[in-house]
């Protein structure tokens, strides 16, 4: 049984009158407002202002992912009617109710390329919103794709391609290109049905699937392809105009190739400016003429089919005149004969005048003209003529070759270089298979037209795949059928006649068409005009979409336009690039350039689908199910192959352009997170690599310092020691793992924002030092625990740090508490226990930054004990960096009285030779000596300081008790020392870097002190710990030797002695290290991790 309940609004009394007054007020208001709807926003308004935990910090908003709403606009007030969801009241802002979510989804609209809003703002007045009827598959996808696919190449070059490549070769060309676009359409359908595709079409799909770098690179390539497509269509328009419609309108009258190209340039530039003006004035005129242009294409195709069928009944009355087997231009003559009989008189024809010097029968004629007869053949023999057998095979040839009919009798004769050779039909360019592929491919582009209109479709998820694939199948059928019909109906010499010079300057496909060639001429002219206008309309908006994404900084100016959003600046750039294609002035040269850019776009569409399919990301749920990653890879491979088949040098240029744009976006572009597949691919690759890294231990040859840098932040959360990061980058040179971490004291709930700020500051400092790595800030109850957590848990799997780098705690003597000293010593202990190397940089602020260049100097290594060879590896790594590159490496080692210094030096030089390290070897003899008074004084001061620090930390009662214990202990120690003084020997320090010497040192430590030394001691020294005295003696003597030899060196590397096992000696450990490194400018204390890091083997 459902339970009805009512939420009663309760308003807090601002004057704090008590709970009873508030309850009474609530009851009264409930009685008065019972019939009114209650707003959740008012119920908990006061509670939200009091509860600070629920407040959103400014930093949260920047880190949070964008809202899932497609059209999300921030409403000024959020009102939730009803009383049944009070339990979720406080989370309504971040987790909205399902009803409001569905309402926003239902009201989503997407304007195609911004065209519709440009039309509405064209008059400068804001029109009332008009409900635009949603288009179906046929009108919205099928016809636009068909209009973009069928175009200039079909009418101007397909017959020539069939004549040169033959029916079989043309069938192979058409099949390859159509299969490529078909496979791309399958991949595109999967991407387009995996969510809504806004304006931008293929650019949006690629960029959101492969990331901003690939998206920007391929988006610009697609833009360049669309722009050069405009050049192609304009050149096709001018070619039809000057060759077939108004051949007398040429500016340059010479019948040369240069004159033809100059005419194309002049008229093409004028046509481009006219089209740009139309596009600038209003896109609506282009859209209204689109149906007219499409009708022209359909009528031309129907006329061609009708003409092919008519050849079964009556072939067209077009003939070709052959001299021998050579095809002649028939513009200058009507009758294909040398002489004709008029009124019983033999009269030379116009052809006689062309090939001979006079109009008389005894005139001197061209030798080939004299030896060969004239033959008139049908240009269109028809389907039943059997000409298909002759046109089945290819007929490639070089440039400037006379077009000849195969199997036609001919008497060979040299063709003199005279004006008479202009009467033959020549091939203007060399023909071969790969060239024809590049010229033909633009005829199958345009499959993206449907995906660009997704916002105008009634059901885009269904219409885009069906309409695009049906358009490709239809156009493929048209192209293949035209290849067969052309080869079966038209004579071979006519097919190879690119401009129809042998049939009175009529397009070859127009000769076949019914009822008149002018159907093809007019239809192809308007088709090319419309396609050019569509390109000049779409390309600027594509560039505007890329510019507004902000991924390419230097393109941002092209994101602006007129007040109505018209991309004026983008249009100007498009016109400029389009003019480059027009200046090329050859349709055959522009087509391969266009093919490169479209093929690259198709390649990455297939790659995007394959990557998303293989990654199996949860968001990859396309409604189009008939796809597979193998089909996408096949389409990708075919696209790449066609690029290099068309033109290998154009392909390399396109790849270089895309690569340069990719690197530019990677280094200078805005950081975008679009959930792209490349990021998912990187994550999968990283996971795979991490899993396999963990399976086997790392070999010594692959060892490199993977650093965990313990960095301090000041009170403003800024990096305290920037030179520590500089030194890290110099040591790593961008290789291996680097984790920079810091610790904040407190709880995470209260210092969450500080942790984010600190981490961002670390990233900024790392970027300033050009340092690649990761940063992390941990909030812990104490610094000690935080650093311990980082040492234990930083890294993942096989990518864990093996060395810790930290700065020397410079102010440990002046600190009132001992936390700095304790944290440092515990860090040393933990790294040793974790078998990790430890690097401690003393005087870190004096280290060079990345801009300095050390002209000369040495890096001195003091090799006291062998702990894995890290001491010798570090200088080598440093000298790979430009800061330390000119420094020399010196290795010092210490010899005792019983060591052979000469042999030690030879052995060490041999060892370094096998290690392939260039270094100067020095052996320093350090003799045993008595403990000096200075050593005792330093030890006494150290112990007195330790006692003083202890006293400061004790309470009064504990202080008195501690003082009595110290007195009793000193008295007992004095008596025991006097009793043992007779049999003791002087304490000496044995220094060596071998294991045997270390055992001898331990045996000597068991000997007592000599009586004469004890009698010479001052009374204050009697209570000193002999272990501390020996340690201090070592530090003092070693420091003297190091300072004497390395005081001018740029960097000194020293073995770092470990802390005492007994924690009671921790107070003195720092003093020993301080004395050891006293007087040196830059010191790096190194403690190995217990494993070999350098080897002599390859």
Automatic annotation (TrEMBL):
Membrane topology: Multi-pass membrane protein
Keyword RNA-binding: no
One cellular component (GO) term of this entry: plasma membrane
Biased composition (Low complexity): 19-32
Domain Amino acid permease/ SLC12A: 141-312, 422-708
Membrane-crossing residue ranges in chain numbering: 168-197, 217-245, 266-283, 289-309, 429-449, 469-495, 569-587, 593-615, 627-651, 861-879
Domain of life: Eukaryota
Residue span(s) of domain SLC12A transporter C-terminal: 838-1098
Keywords in alphabetical order: Cell membrane, Chloride, Glycoprotein, Ion transport, Membrane, Phosphoprotein, Potassium, Potassium transport, Symport, Transmembrane, Transmembrane helix, Transport
GO molecular function, one term: potassium:chloride symporter activity
Annotated localization: Cell membrane
Record family assignment: Belongs to the SLC12A transporter family. K/Cl co-transporter subfamily.
Protein name: Solute carrier family 12 member 7
Source organism of the structure: Oryzias latipes (Japanese rice fish)
Gene that this polypeptide is encoded by: SLC12A7
């Amino acid at each position: 049984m459902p339970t009805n309940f009512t939420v009663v609004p309760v308003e807090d009394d601002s004057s704090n009158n008590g709970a009873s007054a508030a309850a009474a007020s609530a009851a009264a208001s409930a009685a008065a407002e019972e019939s009114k709807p209650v707003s959740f926003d008012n119920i908990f308004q006061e509670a939200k202002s009091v509860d600070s935990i629920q407040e959103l910090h400014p930093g949260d908003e920047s880190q949070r992912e964008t809202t899932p709403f497609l059209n999300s606009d921030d409403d000024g007030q959020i009102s939730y009617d009803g009383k049944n969801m009070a339990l979720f009241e406080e989370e309504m802002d971040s987790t909205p109710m399902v009803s409001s979510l569905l309402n926003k989804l239902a009201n989503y609209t997407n304007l195609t390329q911004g065209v519709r809003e440009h039309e509405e703002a064209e008059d400068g007045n804001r029109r009332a919103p008009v409900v635009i009827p949603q288009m179906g598959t046929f009108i919205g996808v099928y016809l636009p794709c068909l209009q973009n696919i069928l175009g200039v190449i079909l009418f101007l070059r397909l017959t020539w391609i069939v004549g040169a490549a033959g029916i079989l070769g043309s069938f192979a060309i058409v099949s390859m290109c159509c299969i490529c676009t078909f496979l791309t359409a399958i991949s595109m359908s999967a991407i387009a049905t995996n969510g809504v595709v806004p304006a931008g079409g293929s650019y949006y799909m690629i960029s959101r699937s492969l990331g901003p770098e690939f998206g920007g690179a391929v988006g610009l390539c697609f833009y360049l392809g669309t722009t050069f497509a405009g050049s192609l269509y304009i050149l096709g328009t001018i070619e039809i105009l000057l060759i077939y419609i108004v051949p007398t309108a040429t500016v340059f009258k010479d019948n040369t190739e240069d004159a033809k190209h100059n005419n194309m340039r002049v008229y093409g530039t004028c046509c481009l400016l006219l089209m740009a003006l139309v596009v600038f004035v209003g896109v609506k005129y282009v859209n209204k003429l689109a149906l007219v242009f499409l009708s022209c294409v359909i009528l031309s195709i129907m006329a061609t089919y009708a003409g092919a069928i008519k050849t079964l009944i009556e072939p067209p009355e077009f003939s070709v005149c052959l001299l021998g087997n050579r095809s002649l231009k028939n513009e200058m003559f009507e009758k294909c004969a040398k002489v004709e009989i008029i009124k019983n008189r033999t009269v030379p024809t116009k052809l006689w005048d062309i090939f001979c010097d006079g109009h008389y029968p005894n005139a001197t004629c061209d030798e080939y003209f004299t030896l060969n007869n004239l033959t008139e053949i049908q240009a269109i023999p028809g389907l039943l003529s059997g000409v298909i057998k002759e046109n089945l095979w290819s007929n490639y040839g070089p440039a400037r070759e006379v077009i000849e009919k195969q199997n036609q009798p001919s008497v060979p004769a040299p063709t003199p270089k005279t004006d008479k050779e202009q009467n033959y039909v020549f091939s203007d360019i060399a023909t071969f298979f790969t060239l024809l592929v590049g010229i033909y491919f633009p005829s199958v582009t345009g499959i993206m037209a449907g995906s660009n209109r997704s916002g105008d479709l009634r059901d885009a998820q269904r219409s885009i795949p069906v309409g695009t694939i049906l358009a490709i199948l239809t156009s493929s059928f048209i192209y293949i059928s035209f290849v067969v019909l052309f080869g079966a109906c038209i004579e071979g010499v006519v097919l190879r006649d690119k401009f129809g010079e042998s049939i009175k300057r009529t397009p070859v496909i127009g000769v076949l068409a019914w009822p008149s060639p002018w159907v093809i001429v007019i239809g192809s002219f308007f088709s090319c005009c419309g396609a050019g206008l569509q390109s000049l309309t779409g390309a600027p908006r594509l560039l505007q979409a890329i510019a507004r994404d902000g991924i390419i900084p230097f393109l941002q100016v092209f994101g602006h336009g007129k007040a109505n959003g018209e991309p004026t600046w983008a249009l100007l750039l498009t016109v400029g690039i389009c003019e480059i294609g027009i200046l090329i002035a050859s349709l055959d040269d522009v087509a391969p350039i266009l093919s490169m850019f479209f093929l690259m776009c198709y390649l990455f569409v297939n790659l995007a689908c394959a990557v998303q399919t293989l990654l199996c990301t949860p968001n990859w749920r396309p409604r189009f199910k008939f796809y597979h990653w193998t089909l996408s890879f096949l389409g990708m491979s075919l696209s790449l192959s066609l690029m290099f088949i068309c033109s290998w040098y154009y392909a390399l240029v396109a790849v270089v352009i895309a690569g340069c744009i990719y690197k530019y976006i990677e280094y200078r572009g805005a950081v975008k997170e679009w959930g792209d597949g490349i990021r998912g691919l990187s994550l999968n690759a990283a996971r795979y690599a991490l899993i396999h890294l963990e399976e086997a231990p790392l070999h010594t040859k692959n060892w490199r310092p993977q650093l965990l840098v313990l960095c301090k932040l000041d009170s403003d959360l800024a990096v305290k020691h920037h030179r520590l990061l500089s030194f890290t980058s110099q040591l790593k040179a961008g290789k291996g793992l680097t984790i920079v971490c810091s610790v904040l004291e407190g709880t995470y709930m209260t210092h969450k924002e500080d942790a984010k700020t600190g981490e961002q500051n670390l990233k900024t400092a790392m970027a300033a030092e050009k340092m690649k790595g990761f940063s992390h800030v941990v909030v812990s109850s104490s610094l000690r625990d935080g650093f311990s957590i980082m040492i234990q848990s930083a890294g993942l799997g096989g990518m864990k740090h093996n060395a810790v780098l930290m700065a020397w705690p410079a102010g440990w003597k002046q600190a009132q508490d001992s936390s700095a000293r304790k944290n440092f010593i515990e860090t040393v202990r933990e790294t040793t226990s974790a078998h990790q190397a430890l690097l401690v940089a003393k005087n870190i602020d004096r280290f060079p930054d990345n801009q300095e260049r050390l002209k000369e100097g040495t890096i001195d290594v003091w090799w006291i004990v062998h702990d894995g060879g890290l001491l010798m590896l570090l200088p080598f790594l440093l000298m790979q960096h430009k800061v330390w590159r000119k420094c020399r490496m010196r290795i010092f080692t210490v010899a005792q009285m019983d060591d052979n210094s000469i042999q030690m030096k030879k052995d060490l030089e041999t060892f370094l030779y096998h290690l392939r390290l260039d270094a100067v070897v020095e052996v320093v003899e350090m003799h045993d000596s008595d403990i000096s008074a200075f050593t005792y004084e330093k030890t006494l001061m150290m112990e007195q300081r330790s006692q003083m620090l202890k006293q400061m930390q004790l309470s009064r009662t504990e202080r008195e008790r501690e003082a009595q214990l110290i007195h009793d202990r000193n008295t007992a120690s004095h008596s025991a020392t006097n009793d043992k003084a007779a049999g003791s020997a002087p304490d000496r320090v044995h220094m060596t870097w071998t294991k045997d010497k270390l055992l001898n040192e331990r045996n000597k430590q068991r000997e007592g002190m000599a009586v004469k030394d004890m009698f010479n001691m001052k009374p204050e020294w009697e209570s000193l710990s002999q272990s501390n005295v020996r340690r201090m003696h070592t530090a003092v003597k070693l420091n003297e030797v190091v300072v004497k030899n390395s005081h001018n060196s740029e960097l000194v590397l020293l073995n770092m002695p470990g802390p005492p096992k007994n924690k009671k000696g921790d107070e003195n450990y720092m003093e020993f290290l301080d004395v050891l490194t006293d007087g040196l400018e830059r010191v790096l204390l190194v403690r190995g991790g217990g494993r070999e890091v350098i080897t002599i083997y390859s």
